[in-house]
Amino acid sequence: LEKMTDLVAVWEVALSDGVHKIEFEHGTTSGKRVVYVDGKEEIRKEWMFKLVGKETFTVGAAKTKASINIDAVSGFAYEYTLEINGKSLKKYMENRSKTTNTWVLSLGGTDYRVVLEKDTMDVWCNGQKMETAGEFVEDGTETHFSVGDHSCCIKAVSSGKRKEGIIHTLIVDDREIPEAVE
């Protein structure tokens, strides 16, 4: 197995099912292009005469669309930009922070990453979509699920302020988990 000698870019993309690593090799003499997602080869093209262009592939369980744009900057210098669902990685992550909540916690020595997709109220834990039960309570809603033998609940309560909207809180075994910043 040849070592990645033409590795030109590495990105980390946080999706609901986990944080994915995207690596890109670009051989500017051979025109080779290789895309790896989480260490697995997704695209390999040898002897491309056109050194600029775009490679499109999917990432994660939800098959999120991703593309790498290859642009010539000057002479033999190239710029590589990653787009997720048609948005720059930065824009995608900014938008994602508005549509999801993420918590990272440790239970019995195991690390868990819990993600709430606010538009669908889907809950993901370590790459798995969880079975949940929702109920209306006096001050909002509760979404119940379990991780191992731990009971978990995401409480959704109105902030009372239109700008802030709804506040989501993860409670595991009766203790509040602080939200993670990705």
Observed structural traits:
182 residues, mainly beta, Lipocalin, five-stranded antiparallel sheet, 61% strand
Q: Unreliable segments (pLDDT under 50, ≥5 consecutive)?
A: none
User: Count of DSSP helices?
Assistant: 1
Radius of gyration of CA atoms, rounded to a whole number: 20 Å
CATH class of the largest domain: Mainly Beta
Q: How much strand content do the residues show?
A: over 45%
How far the N terminus sits from the C terminus, by CA atoms, comes to: 33 Å
Strands of the biggest beta sheet: in what spatial order?
A: 13-14-15-16-17
- Counted up, domains total 2
Number of strands: 17
Q: What does the overall shape look like?
A: elongated
Question: Can you tell me the CATH architecture of the largest domain?
Answer: Beta Barrel
Structural class: mainly beta
* Main sheet attributes: strand count, strand direction, barrel closure: 5 strands, antiparallel
Secondary-structure element series = EEEEEEEEHEEEEEEEEE
The CATH topology of the largest domain is what? Lipocalin
Q: Helical percent range?
A: under 10%
Mean pLDDT across every amino acid position: 91
